[in-house]
Amino acid sequence: MHYLITGGAGFIGSHLADALAGSHEITILDNLSSGTLRNIQHLLDTDRCTFVEGTFTDEDLVLSLCEGIDGIFHLGALTSVQQSVEEPRRAHEVNIGGTLNLLMASREHAVRKVVFASTAALYGNNPTFPKTETMLPEPLSPYAVSKLTGEYYCRIFSDLYGVKTACLRFFNVFGPRQDPHSDYAAVIPIFISRLLDGKPLTIFGDGKQTRDFIFVKDVVAANLRGMEGDAEGVFNIARGERTSLNELASLLVDIVGSEAGIVYEAPRAGDVRHSMADVSKARDRLGFSPSYSIREGLEETVRSFRSA
Ligand code: UD1
């Protein structure tokens, strides 16, 4: 098979490229805005991986790249919620316009299936637990609106034009290659890099807030499941478990073996208190269940941060 991975030089996309490259031909389209060639350099030396530096907002480029493609993993996006608040038009053009380009090209070239990276952010602050795919979305940012719109476009391209689509709502993904230093960095890479530097961890609030963390290699497996079968629609991708920030911090202190301590600060404005997915739909319809425990995923992530 020949797959196109948008955002293939990024955090999740490069792990997916690793998983596919052994047995498939892949083309990576990435404009290197948040991804980096370091993530895929080892693949570029093989003849089964082609890298195209460019953007999926370029309609002609997308149309030409999709010729002969069997499936598209659309992981490229403006991924920062905060950046989307600052630049809503850009979020619109990249996340909605770009997705539309890929779907139109898929129709034109009869691409079998598109797997679209969506987000738990579209559940907003709805306090219902766990989050099920049938809940009314409550997007609170241009980013969430853009991903929700992408999901709707996927659905109507399936209904109207027969392009098969699966939308995966990722919860809190972590793993090797996740950037700890960007302004929009997630908590796990921040905590690991601070512990390795011997610095104390900062927890915003009482640390009893929870997240449904999932290891990046499980997210890769979910993408492969999404592509394989005929199942379409939206699917939560998570472990279906809550981990508090206090539990996360003590797990990491234990794994890294650090004595640096924990500092509590005021809660972060706009923070969601709890987040947890109902994962039964992905299990039943995609046959996806995560295989890494939080601890196993954290251990592998710490190992990779140590050797980076
Ligand atoms: C994620 C997004 C956020 C978005 C939200 C919407 C990322 C990195 N964050 O936030 O932009 O608004 O989804 O659903 O994609 N924390 C600490 N100490 C730290 C860093 C974080 O205590 O040094 C806490 C946060 O306050 C939060 C938790 O850790 O309670 C997780 O933070 P984060 O990794 O940013 O994820 P989300 O809060 O889910």
Could you characterize the architecture of this molecule?
This protein has 308 residues and is α/β, with parallel strands linked by helices. The chain has eleven helices and 13 strands. It has helices at residues 11-21, 41-44, 59-65, 81-86, 88-108, 142-161, 187-196, 216-228, 245-256, 280-286, 294-307, and strands at residues 2-6, 25-30, 49-53, 71-74, 113-119, 164-170, 172-174, 201-204, 210-211, 213-215, 233-237, 243-244, 262-265. It has a seven-stranded parallel beta sheet with strand order 3-2-1-4-5-6-11, sandwiched between helices. It has a two-stranded parallel sheet with strand order 7-10. α3 packs parallel to α5 (88-108). The structure holds uridine-diphosphate-N-acetylglucosamine. Uridine-diphosphate-N-acetylglucosamine is lined by residues 81-82, 121, 172, 184, 186-187, 190, 202-204, 209, 211, 245, 268, 271-272.
Would you summarize the structure shown here?
The chain is an alpha/beta fold.
Order of helices and strands: EHEHEHEHHEHEEHEEEHEEHEHH
Structural class: alpha/beta
Bound molecules: uridine-diphosphate-N-acetylglucosamine
Could you say which overall geometry the principal axes of the C-alpha atoms support?
globular
Helical amount among residues, as a percent range?
A: 40-55%
What's the average pLDDT?
96
Which CATH C-level class is it? Answer: Alpha Beta
What fold name goes in the CATH topology slot?
A: Rossmann fold
**CATH superfamily membership, which one?**
NAD(P)-binding Rossmann-like Domain
H/I helix tally: 11
Distance between the termini: 32 Å
Report on the biggest sheet.
7 strands, parallel
